[in-house]
Task: inverse folding
């Protein structure tokens, strides 16, 4: 049994996928129209009556559920595709662009102590300096933002999909997803050295990726999450835990990312586990 | 006649290169490979040899010479079939000029320096008596890969193109009394090969031996059985005059004849033949090698690579190779939309609508316009061609191509990684591909250097067998590239050397934004590239 997110009432992960589709449809069309579609072959009056009945019984639109809280200490990469589905994600940090120069500068700023070294736990909080503060109540439109220290929270998440949808995570938390950086981290636990593998990622939008502190991939400018968009040079995953970090930078709109490793034959890598618990 | 690469490059920019060196020959035998060298012989025994298939020189005449020989390698023997010679002893007077013999000689090596080089006489394998509807010249040998049976086609315009079976162990006629199969008419210089369930019969049609007045062209039909019938693309039997064109004169060369298949392995096929007249060589008859491609089950004559400035686009991903530097929008661009909210797929399905750049210019391209050309794209719609003005109206004047010299001040001076990106006509995405001076070659082409257009920044293989752009070209093997057409308009790009790799590697679009070098897989689109005019 999976522990579902706070805004979910669904009982199983499988149902979550159905909810995703239903919710997406609900967002693109009024519920009444959506429900009325099967009645199209009936008479117009009967169809209208049924549609009205359906409309009154239609459930309220639900937000897509693609994320759950991790259960168990480790998780294997997804069988189909080898995707890494367990991550720690930090609340967004303000950013100002997607070009190579700007992204490289901004993701390497130290916003809080231990930013590039610590492995946080779910719920850990950090304080980031010089972040835009929420507008004061009653502030006039166009008032320049105020800046100051902001407390940010790490969230442990398992995604049900190949990708982790950051909008799904932060919209319900009323966090911005526009002009922001999302720092994410996970641990890749290998039973032995695995040579000649490559990190393969996709991101919306720009992103920079590090394995054990070494920068492997940088993608820049506006882009969608394409599987294996960015691929690293050949690397060795060392025995034990490997720290995989990324900074996802979004300007506007949807934002998500996906990651996996490819073996020496360019096939999805398995044979390791993903954990958020650092080894002692 | 010596032709240097430099002179050719200057004289024939954006043209295909003919082979280099001594290539004058008529009716060449199928080019074969033996102990590190390529060999062919022509009518009269004209011998040509090459170390790389690109630069040729005169070789050594064989034991017997005659008209239009063909050579095939089976096991430890090279069999040469020649229209010439005959049975030992005196012969009765010929009833016509069309009495002829095809004889065979064989050797275990084609290299005169080898201890195995010794031509042995194999005797007569086919003949015409001067009265029958055949003239036994122009042999073409074919080993059926599905049955391992050896066949010989022969003949010319006098009567039929015929087929007899040989013994693959000895190269001799399997049954001298067997009746030949009649396959075709209206041609000569026949040859056969098998590919993907079809037997192909190729022959040369038209007139020969008249330099630029020669109408030679190579035609073909195909059959599910080696003995025919061979039908062309219209369903016309070649024995009733059918024949689909494979190649005829093009560019500066006239009259194509005497097809010979070159299977280079890894799904790469080429064919050897001769031009009746190379206008750049004063109308001489010369050897040529071209890619052999397939479309809808029919062979297609491919192109050898032509120098020029190009976009290099992955067939698999549709993204293009670029030097990994910050791109500058052509003409300066403008801010653009701030996000990717319109993207499809599950990753984007839950996202909010895209947002316009905010007041601080934080759009996706907001910073890209800050470079040297930042002002060029502003003021959209003010000119007469602006299409009504507004943000989509343009500037009203043509925007010139972006040159490297306009944007390279921000490029790192040293090595720069290579990546792939959507093609946006930017300077770091345009590659000049030109023959590498003194770089050698491969069957049909010289090795090429690949540089960022307008610069000497050179695509190369790094020590980790990954791609890199070096500041300048030195001619090292890791900077030389073999470019073979492997499907229509699709090319395989292979470095001459890949940092000690023991197996040939090819440029591979492993990711949408990442290219590497990997063992070539002919079935994978990752390793096919469209090299397009920018």
Result:
């Amino acid at each position: 049994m999976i522990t579902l997110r706070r805004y979910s009432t669904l009982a199983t992960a499988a149902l979550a996928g159905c909810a995703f589709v239903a919710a997406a449809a609900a967002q693109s069309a009024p519920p009444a129209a959506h429900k009325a579609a099967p009645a199209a072959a009936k008479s117009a009056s009967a169809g209208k009556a049924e549609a009205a009945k359906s409309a009154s019984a239609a459930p309220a639109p639900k937000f897509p559920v693609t994320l759950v809280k991790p259960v168990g200490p480790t998780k294997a990469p997804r069988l189909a595709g080898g995707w890494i589905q367990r991550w720690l994600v930090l609340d967004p940090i303000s950013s100002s662009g997607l070009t190579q120069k700007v992204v490289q500068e901004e993701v390497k700023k130290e916003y809080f102590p231990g930013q590039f070294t610590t492995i946080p736990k779910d719920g850990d909080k950090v304080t980031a300096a010089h972040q835009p503060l929420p507008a004061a109540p009653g502030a006039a439109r166009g008032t320049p933002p105020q800046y100051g220290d902001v407390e940010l929270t790490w969230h442990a998440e398992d995604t049900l999909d190949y990708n982790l949808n950051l909008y799904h995570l932060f919209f319900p938390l009323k966090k911005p997803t526009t002009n922001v950086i999302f720092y994410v981290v996970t641990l890749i636990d290998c039973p032995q050295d695995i040579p000649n593998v490559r990190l393969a990622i996709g991101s919306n939008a720009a992103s920079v990726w590090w394995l054990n502190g070494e920068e492997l991939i940088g993608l820049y400018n506006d882009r969608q999450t394409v599987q294996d968009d960015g691929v690293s040079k050949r690397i060795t995953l060392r025995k034990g835990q490997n720290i995989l970090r990324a900074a996802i930078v979004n300007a506007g709109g949807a934002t998500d990312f996906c990651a996996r490793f490819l073996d020496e034959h360019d096939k999805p890598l398995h044979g390791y586990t993903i954990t958020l618990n650092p080894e002692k | 006649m010596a032709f240097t690469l430099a002179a050719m490059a200057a004289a024939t920019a954006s043209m295909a290169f003919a082979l280099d060196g001594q290539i004058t020959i008529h009716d060449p035998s199928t080019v074969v490979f033996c102990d590190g060298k390529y060999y062919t012989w022509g009518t009269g025994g004209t011998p040509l040899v090459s170390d790389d298939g690109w630069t040729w020189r005169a070789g050594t005449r064989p034991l017997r010479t005659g008209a239009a020989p063909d050579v095939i390698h089976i096991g430890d023997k090279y069999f040469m079939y020649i229209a010439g010679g005959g049975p030992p002893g005196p012969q009765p007077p010929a009833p016509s000029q069309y009495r002829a013999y095809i004889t065979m000689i064989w050797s275990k090596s084609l290299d005169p320096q080898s201890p195995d080089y010794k031509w042995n006489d194999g005797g007569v394998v086919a003949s015409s008596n001067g009265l029958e509807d055949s003239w036994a010249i122009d042999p073409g040998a074919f080993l059926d890969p599905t049955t391992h049976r050896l066949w010989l086609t022969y003949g010319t315009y006098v009567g039929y193109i015929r087929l007899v079976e040989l013994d693959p162990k000895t190269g001799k006629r399997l049954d001298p009394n067997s009746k030949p199969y009649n396959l075709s008419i209206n041609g000569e210089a026949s040859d056969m090969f098998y590919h993907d369930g079809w037997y192909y019969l190729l022959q040369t049609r038209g007139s020969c031996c008249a330099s630029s007045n020669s109408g030679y062209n190579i035609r073909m039909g195909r059959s599910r059985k080696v003995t025919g019938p061979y039908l062309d693309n219209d369903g016309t039997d070649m024995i009733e005059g059918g024949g689909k064109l494979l190649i005829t004169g093009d560019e500066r060369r006239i009259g194509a004849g005497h097809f010979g298949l070159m299977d280079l392995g890894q799904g790469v096929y080429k064919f050897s033949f001769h031009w009746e007249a190379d206008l750049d060589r004063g109308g001489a008859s010369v050897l040529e090698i071209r890619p052999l491609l397939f479309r809808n089950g029919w062979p297609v004559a491919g192109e050898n690579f032509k120098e020029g400035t190009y976009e290099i686009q992955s067939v698999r991903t549709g993204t293009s190779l670029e030097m990994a530097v910050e791109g500058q929008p052509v003409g300066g661009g403008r801010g653009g939309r701030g996000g990717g909210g319109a993207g499809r797929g599950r990753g984007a399905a839950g996202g909010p609508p895209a947002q316009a750049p905010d007041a601080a210019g934080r759009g996706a391209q907001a910073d890209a316009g800050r470079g040297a050309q930042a002002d060029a794209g502003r003021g959209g719609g003010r000119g007469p061609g602006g299409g009504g003005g507004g943000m989509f109206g343009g500037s009203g004047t043509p925007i010139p191509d972006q040159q490297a010299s306009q944007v390279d001040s921000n490029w790192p001076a040293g090595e720069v990684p290579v990546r792939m990106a959507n093609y946006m006509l930017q300077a770091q995405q345009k590659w000049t591909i030109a023959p590498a001076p003194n770089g050698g070659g491969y069957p049909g082409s010289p090795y090429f250097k690949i540089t960022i257009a307008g610069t000497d920044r050179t695509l190369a293989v790094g020590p980790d067998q990954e791609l890199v752009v070096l500041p300048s070209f030195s001619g090292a093997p890791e900077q030389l590239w073999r470019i073979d057409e492997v499907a229509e308009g699709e090319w395989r790009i292979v470095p001459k050397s890949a940092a000690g790799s023991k197996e040939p590697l090819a440029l591979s679009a492993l990711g949408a934004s990442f290219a590497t070098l990997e063992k070539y897989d002919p079935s994978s689109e990752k390793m096919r590239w469209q090299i397009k005019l920018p």
Residues 1-15, 338-386 of chain B have pLDDT under 50 and may be disordered. The two ends of chain B are 36 Å apart (CA to CA). Chain B touches chain A at residues 325-326, 336-355, 358, 360, 362-368, 464-466, 510-514, 516, 518 (CB under 8 Å).
